[in-house]
Amino acid sequence: MEKRVLVLNMDHSPIAVITVQKAFVLIFLDKATCLSHYEGMEVRTVNEVFSYPAVLRLNEYKNIPFRGVLLNRNNLFRRDKGACQYCGSKKNLTIDHVIPRSKGGKTNWMNLITACNRCNVLKGDKTPEQSGLVLQSKPFKPSLVFFLSEYAERQAEEWLPFLGVKAY
Length: 168
Ligand SMILES: [Zn+2]
Prior knowledge:
This is HNH endonuclease. By secondary structure, this protein is of the alpha+beta class. It has helices at about 20-30, 75-80, 115-125, 130, 145-155; strands spanning about 5-10, 15-20, 30-45, 50-60, 95, 110-115.
């Protein structure tokens, strides 16, 4: 499988994840410097063999406003580690509004959680208190680093020193 490349701004704050092809373009155009390689991996062209970049740092500071992590089903499930936030089940997952929409509950990171179908039906149009269900953790708005760390732990340990996260 092709590995992704982490891009840091000049001040070392993580800003993007790109393909290895894009990474080589940035390196060849002298727009970025490679800080870390994937060990034991290489990229071959017809004539040459290169180390496989893992982390790049831009050579110039880019002012990129961070708009936040996209709120969608996949990202919500990832934030909640693929488990129902009421009972912990990992099956038949759905999205639940903690405060139901009918009671003014918003559709945002703070009011949406992963819930299994059973708990969702049990909860119905009630608040957790009214339905007797207990939230196992408080919903939060994930940062980019949160998702990068989650990916890094599974796919790209080389990123961890650059995310302020300890490797195992
Ligand atoms: Zn459940």
